[in-house]
Design goal:
Blueprint: H1 2-5, H2 11-29, H3 35-63, H4 74-83, H5 94-102, H6 104-113, H7 116-146, H8 160-175, H9 177-184, H10 187-203, E1 211-213, E2 216-218, H11 220-247, H12 249-260, H13 262-280, H14 289-336
Antiparallel strand pairs: 1-2
Helix pairs in contact: 2-8, 2-11, 3-13, 3-14, 7-8, 7-11, 8-9, 10-11, 11-12, 13-14
């Protein structure tokens, strides 16, 4: 069960693909909107929700320090407020996302200038080159100086392929929605996705990262594994969700509603992955394996349900606070006039 559920880390690939798709598609739909207004909307979508949860995440360790990693200092706190760093457990992906927001104007211009295939292959080449150089050359040499910032995955360039893949799909979808859907649902595309998923998982294993050349161990697998997993897991999940949406209208409405709180779900996943797991998972030595597996499944379902409820409440709280802020700001500015 652990082998299966621990693959949840793959969800971050879907996150970056959907982020690239959402940003590019919203920009394509409103080409005349100024970039300042566009980025302002994205700022208010990201930061208020994050700051609210950040306050909560800083209180919990004081109550039960064993529920978190036990790492905290004031420097990391201020970094967390500004660049959305890792004060909230499992929220490391927010930092590269902010970097993508900052360079999105440049990426969007490249998307318009080049063909879809050129855009995708170029992003893949840049990502693989960066990951290879960091892992092969720079990580051991520069880590004592730059710390986490040099680690593959912590900078946006290491997720460039996934983000640009989403942007490219947005361009295709805006021109012809059926073309993109037909391509993603082709049997050959699904087969390729499964192969990429398997190759990606194998690339993350130990044997693929201890290849020795002239007595020096090289982490070749870590250079490419997440690019393969990113494409594979997205196509697989896309087809699963498409199948589920055809089962009933209720399923479609549920998946659509779930998509509206996806950002909050990513931020609140630590509640399930840390707190619920520590309180509810109890394995008794010698008990039947089916009982342990059944309990694990029930806890996993409970974890998802609780995270969904918390994500919904977080979104409601954020909307309530921001609406009151805008109302107060409007009254204040009207009073000045």
């Amino acid at each position: 069960m652990n082998i299966f559920f621990l693959l949840g880390y793959q969800g971050v690939h879907i996150f970056f693909i959907l982020s690239g798709f959402g940003l590019a598609y919203s920009r394509i739909l409103k080409p005349d909107e100024s970039w300042s207004i566009f980025m302002k909307k994205k700022f208010f979508r990201l930061y208020p929700t994050y700051w609210i949860l950040l306050v909560v995440s800083l209180i919990i360790p004081r109550l039960r320090s064993d529920l978190f990693f036990g790492y905290f200092n004031w420097f990391s706190l201020w970094r967390s407020f500004i660049i959305l760093d890792k004060a909230i457990p499992f929220s490391w992906f927010m930092f590269p996302l902010i970097q993508f927001y900052l360079c999105f104007l440049l990426l969007f211009k490249f998307l318009q200038k080049f063909s879809v295939s050129q855009f995708i292959w170029t992003s893949l080449l840049i990502k693989l080159t960066y990951a290879f150089l960091i892992l092969m050359v720079g990580f051991n040499l520069f880590f004592p100086i730059i710390g986490d910032f040099g680690y593959p995955g912590y900078l946006a360039i290491s997720r460039l392929f996934e983000f640009c893949l989403g942007m490219a799909m947005a361009k295709v979808y805006a021109n012809n929605p059926n073309l993109l859907i037909n391509y993603l649902t082709k049997p050959i595309t699904i087969a390729l996705a499964i192969i990429c998923e398997i190759v990606g998982i194998m690339g993350s294993l130990k044997f693929a990262n201890q290849i020795k050349i002239l007595g020096v161990a090289f982490s070749f697998g870590m250079s490419f594994y997440d690019a393969f997993i990113g494409f594979g897991i997205f196509v697989i999940v896309f087809n699963v969700c498409r199948f589920l949406s055809k089962l009933s209208d209720l399923t479609t409405r549920f998946l659509t509603w779930l998509s509206h709180i996806s950002y909050e779900l990513y931020l609140t996943q630590f509640i399930g992955l840390i707190i619920i797991r520590k309180f509810f998972i109890v394995l008794v030595q010698g008990e039947p394996p089916l009982l342990s597996a059944g309990r694990a499944i029930l806890v996993y379902v409970l974890m998802i349900q609780i995270c969904i409820v918390i994500a919904f409440l977080l979104q409601y709280l954020t909307n309530w606070i921001t609406s009151r802020f805008r109302l107060a700001r409007g009254l204040f500015t009207s009073g000045i006039k």
